[in-house]
Design goal:
The protein folds into two domains: 1-41; 42-109, OB fold (Dihydrolipoamide Acetyltransferase, E2P). The chain has one helix and five strands. It has one helix spanning 4-41, and strands at residues 43-59, 62-70, 76-82, 94-100, 103-109. Strands 3-2-1-4-5 form a five-stranded antiparallel sheet. The longest helix is centred in the first third of the chain and has 38 residues, at 4-41.
């Protein structure tokens, strides 16, 4: 009976980790596939930054921001990226992106 307890604990811990980290792993894989598709089939454009919003996430003193840009077709595209505190992009500046012409809401900075 005592030999079963460590196996049961390992099984429970493995199940909890799988349930909690599984969606994160799927999201990372999905984002990776989406990025690869954009790199292979996306179109490049230089677009104007319309607005920036702080997401309150910082890594190595670099904030992650959500940037709104005017797409080539006139719609508004949004994406999140880490930016340098030293060279902080501002509304009105131009930025290079890759986007999916079939779905301009899929945007990635270059």
């Amino acid at each position: 009976m005592n030999d079963c307890i460590p196996s049961l604990v390992v099984l429970i811990v493995t199940g909890v980790l799988t349930l909690s980290l599984g969606p994160l792993a799927l999201s990372l894989i999905s984002n990776s596939v989406r990025r690869k598709q954009l790199q292979l089939h996306g179109e490049r454009a230089t677009v104007e930054i319309l607005d920036m919003r702080d997401t309150r996430v910082t890594v190595n003193l670099n904030p992650r921001v959500e940037i709104s840009v005017r797409m080539p077709d006139g719609t508004i595209g949004k994406f999140k990226m880490f930016v340098s505190r030293v060279r902080f992009p501002r509304p009105g500046e131009k930025i290079n992106i890759l986007y999916d012409p079939a779905d301009p809401s899929v945007v990635m900075p270059v």
